[in-house]
Write a structure and sequence with these properties.
single chain, mainly alpha, 8 helices
């Protein structure tokens, strides 16, 4: 699976076009565009990880959202493959200031919605129901929260599909390309898409 496929799958799964900032970061290979930005030393996650964009409370909420969207099943959860940490690094170190500000507006609306719904204190089923209700709602007062959720969901899915663990263990992965075979039966590749 190449980077364009990841963006296409992310758009298909979320039912919306991928944001320009996320598409640019994924297509460019996620190079660091702001190497001089240093993290605030007081912004550490509960596990001691240095955060680059989110506060510790926001990082915990992002982790809950990510694990609600992609829970541990026969494949790892989003947090098992460091999706929240990747999102924090991408937003804090790779994205430009305009993209950060745009994300922050949507994140703030989503954070408010989730706080009002007691997302952090709910059981897994309740958290999932709250996200489904937001995504399917047409209420005008939830437009900003819905847009923020869609943006977060796209980041989570894209970073999950590009993680090394998923690429090597759950998608077809060929680190050194072999012979090109344009037409092969899907059964020959265990019904898996190709990794990046």
């Amino acid at each position: 699976m190449n980077r364009r496929d990841i963006l296409r799958y992310t758009a298909l799964i979320t039912g919306s076009a991928v944001s320009a900032s996320l598409a640019g970061a994924v297509l460019s290979g996620c190079s660091d565009s702001s190497p001089d930005k240093q993290p605030d030393p007081s912004s550490n996650a509960a596990d001691g990880r240095v955060l680059h964009y989110f506060s510790p409370e926001q990082f915990a909420l992002l982790t809950l959202v990510a694990d609600t969207l992609l829970p541990r099943t026969e494949s790892p959860s989003a947090s098992d493959v460091e999706v929240p940490a990747t999102a924090d690094s991408m937003l804090g170190k790779v994205f430009d200031e305009d993209a950060r500000l745009a994300f922050k507006a949507g994140w703030s609306a989503l954070e408010t919605y989730l706080g009002e719904g007691n997302f952090s204190r709910g059981e897994a089923g309740e958290r999932e129901a709250l996200l489904v209700a937001l995504e399917s709602s047409d209420a005008p007062e939830l437009t900003a929260a819905r847009a923020g959720y869609l943006e977060v969901k796209q980041h989570i899915i894209a970073y999950y599909l590009t993680s090394e663990t998923i690429g090597e263990n759950y998608l077809n992965y060929l680190p050194i390309p072999g012979r090109y075979e344009p037409c092969i039966p899907v059964d020959d590749v265990d019904n898996k898409a190709w990794a990046v």
